[in-house]
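agent> step 3/5: call structure_predict on target 'chorismate mutase' (Hankyongella ginsenosidimutans).
agent> reason: downstream docking stage needs a structural representation; sequence fetched in step 2, passing through unchanged.
tool.input:
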Amino acid sequence: MAEVRAGVDALDRKLVALLAERLRYMAAAARIKPTRNLVRDDARKAQVIANARALAAEHGMPVDIADAIYEALVETCIAYELGLFDAARENV
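tool.output (status=ok):
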């Protein structure tokens, strides 16, 4: 069991690093988008989730799990980007 936990911990370190990188892209998007209503893009959200579902299927991952994870991830990233967008414009 210790070996399994060590493997999970190692993967979590990689996942968090990748998520931090994803958030840096969200921060860039918040700086680039000219208006707040462009932060939420439901068509793009659907595309990202569909891509994740397809990748999950390719890797033998349950698609419903990928769907749930990416729904939460994308919504959390949208909220993060909105917060950054608003904060940047409040200081102007």
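agent> step 4/5: record observation. The longest helix spans residues 2-32.
agent> proceeding.
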